[in-house]
Amino acid sequence: MKHLILTSAILAALTAPIGAETLTIGTATAQTGGLAYADVPTMQGMKLAVEEINAAGGIDGATKIVLLEKDVRSDPAQTSIAAQELADAGVSVIVLPGDSDPALAAIGVVSSAEIPAISTVASSPTLPEIGGDYMFSNFPGDNVQAAVSAKWAWDEGYKTAWIVYSPDTQYTTMPLYFRDVFEKLGGEMLGVSTNTIGQQDFSAIATTIAAQDPQPDLVMTSAYEPDFPSMLIALRAAGVTSQVIGSDGIDSPTTFSLGDVGENVVFTTAGFATKGSPLEAFDKAFEQKYGTAPESIYSAVGYDLIKVIEAAVIVAGSTEPKKIRDAMADLENVQGATGLITYKGTNGMPVRQVSLIRVKDGGRELVGQPSPDANLIPAPRMQ
Amino acid sequence: MLTSSRTQLLASGGMIIMLSVIAVFVATWFGPATERMLTVFFISLTAVVGIGVYSGNSGILSFGHVAFMGVGAYASSLLTVPAALKGATLPGLPTWLADVELTLIPATLIAMVFTAVVALAVGAAISKLEGSAATIATLGLLIIVHGVIIGWRDVTRGAQSFFGVPRVTDLVTAAAFCVVALLLARLYRDSVSGLRLRAGRENAIAAGAVGVRIRWERLISFVLAAAIMALAGAMMAHFLGAFSPKKFYFNDTFLLLAMLIVGGMSTVTGAITGAVVITLVTEILRRLESGFSIGVFDVPPIFGTAQIGIGLIILLAMFRKVDGLAGLKEWEERVLPGSTLIAQVAPPSVGAQDVLSGEGLTMQFGGLTAVDDVSIQILPGQIVGLIGPNGSGKTTLLNMLSGILTPTQGQILLGGRDLTGLSSPKIADQGIARTFQNIRLFTNLTVYQNVLVAALSTHRGKDAVARAQTALDWLDVMKHVAADAGTLSYGDQRRVEIARALACQPQVLFLDEPAAGMNREETDALMEILRRLSADLGISVLLVDHDLELINQLSDQIMVLNEGRMIAQGTPQEIRRNKAVIEAYLGTGRENTN
Q1: Residues 162..221 of B with a Cβ closer than 8 Å to A: which?
Q2: Could you tell me if the ipTM is greater than 0.85?
Q3: Cβ separation of B251 and A75 shorter than 8 Å?
Q4: pTM of the model
Q5: What is the Cα–Cα distance from B63 to B145, expressed in whole angstroms?
Q6: Per-residue pLDDT tens for B46-89?
Q7: Closest Cα to residue B53, out of B43, B65, B41?
Q8: Do A12 and B163 touch (CB under 8 A)?
Q9: 3-state SS assignment for residue B76
Q10: Hey, which of A330, B339, B402, B407 has its CA 20 to 30 A from A46?
Q11: Of the CATH numbers 3.90.180.10, 1.10.645.10, 3.40.50.2300, 3.30.2130.10, which one belongs to the domain with range A2-140+275-352?
Q12: Domain ranges of chain A
């Protein structure tokens, strides 16, 4: 028995079948830890897409997809190790965690193994820039999201702003992009606060903002749970009545279950299921498979990720990593669940739709799906 | 200087090198995935043995040494990351650091030195603490260093990942560095410092009383351990290519301590065993994590199995083998003979030339006066008996005279030199050695090591081996040299304790109830030995015992304590007739009570 277990374990690890009819996608994602809130739903969407494609006979009716899964526990070092294991196993594409920090940890591996890598939902525009030719993103960039929300705020008539950001990750520095755009449009920054990820006492920041006279018209942050709910509650408790603007990190069930406190928060994210949209169809298929509606947009983004790989394999006509990379870099208008996705002409940061959502009556209300003016989008930079 | 036999050390070193070379060849044959697994293993083993150098020898479990691994990783990486990349990712770096671009080995050496300096500062504070207080302090160290790394954004990129480190740690490099670390750890264990530290681990008070400056030894091992951790950290950084402060925090501390605890803290054999067991188990479980199939059953992916598995192994180890799989001895210590004593000329006995006197000694514990204004004088070569009912202050007086307690009032002089307030190691070095009422041997060290460590820690270790041998001969325990002190019979343990005190080459010997637990024949034999110590070597003896026959026959002078006060002093004959003594021992007669 012991032998049997051992052998199966070794077999499971070493025999990812790689042949003409299969495409092996290695996933080194955060199924546990701080990024699980994004990577777990993403994985559900990916599996749905794989199932659909395989049920239809595979990519182009010929190539079945196999997923080889590793949990990286939201840790950069573990990501580097898992990516290396996947490269050793001979996968054609590697999927990396939903934040640029752990994803960056795999740079060395993917560039030396020359295997294309895509982060599930990392949105820092610096990721593909620093990551080189083999690193791709799968989400609207931070700078694009910030340009969309800043433009909307300015058009709504908000003139003064306060930002709360954390230098702990690239993602949580999105408010700095927001500041650039907002000031460019003519808005005035009343102040900047910084927080530490995982440190949920926001009373000092809330009191500072509440003490402003007049209070800022809006407060912008890209904190995500569990920090964001704490921040929001602290702000409202301190008497801050400003409009609160967030980002895709708060596109999760928690935000919609905050009751009155959560009402009227506006945030940017990767899609909204309008009537008759592909996203609506995706939501239905998802519910059929899993029994519940997707809990956040990340599931649809995960579905898109597989669709992008599918499109690249079709163009490449091969499962060879290098050819897939070249094809992927040249993709244009791939139809995903959230809309059209284009890599052509970018450095790996896709052009894709951004939706502005308002929390209303504990549900989502579409504010708009604007395409930002290219001149407004700030250049990517390391923070 | 090394304290164990050359055969054992050579066997150990040979085995370490041979196993490493075999492992490298086997892994190379299996291919890159196995090579990488083995590389991680070598790095982990380096770290485990690093923690073991401190925790194993001092007996203080350290949660903090992984912090030094982090310091080593960041320090070395800052030196090797290409200058161009540093410019992009660390714009706040000082210019002199931003322009540096070194290769792995010089960067690692600099990182080790830097980490050792940091450890020296930290260790100086932590080495003052005992037992669990020290352990908790190391936990604080881990948290503080983690905080500093996160906070020092200009240099470390804060909580974000530090990436772009050249991935140059290959299997052979890791194996070579690991072998160096293992050999260092093995040699340290049997160095003079390592032996002293282990004696302190077994019994801190007794170690102090034979001249071991335990804080100093702790500091040495703390710094050495930190340097080895820095080596492991530098290798890890240059293996992964990217890491974040989280890499050097609780998760890895847990993993490495699991290896150390499961294998056995106090030996290099244990570190290797633990690292092998835990690595094998985690590698298997981690692969099972992604799901597998047994025949027709498909087991879905279960994430987190590796951690649960390690937890279970620790539980199992704690229930079945508290000292770890390897126990308290190196494999070669079990298989090969220990130090064979080389016949040497016995060192000249110094004999006592000085008068030891305590004047007006008073010891108060809060409101309780345990010893009240007692003066005592021991002439060279004299045997002084100290008696008194239980709780009369005999042991307290002995503790003051031997530096374990500092008297509240009064003065201790040896031949005119003031010893008041000196620490017990210094007192031991001045020529005052002692035994303890409840035996305090270094139970897991051999009889030879027990005695040798005393000889090594007094009089600058001059003629240590010869002194140890003479002491063992005198007490007739030479036949037990290879046995662990804790395994001896009670009477033999008493004798070894006296031999250990004697190895300090004392002028004055304090014996606290040396005959307790001995039968009549053993007591008589002991009496003969003590008489010869005084007559032949000229050593002064202060003897505390309840066996009045022993005291009467041996003592030149007897002092009697009652309720902390000296109630009588004189020759045995005088004391036997003393009314106060009779009262103290037998109570007052009925005619005097109301």
Answers
A1: 163-164, 167
A2: no
A3: yes
A4: 0.84
A5: 12
A6: 999 999 999 999 999 999 999 999 999 999 999 999 998 888 88
A7: B65
A8: no
A9: helix
A10: A330
A11: 3.40.50.2300
A12: 2-140+275-352, 142-269+356-368
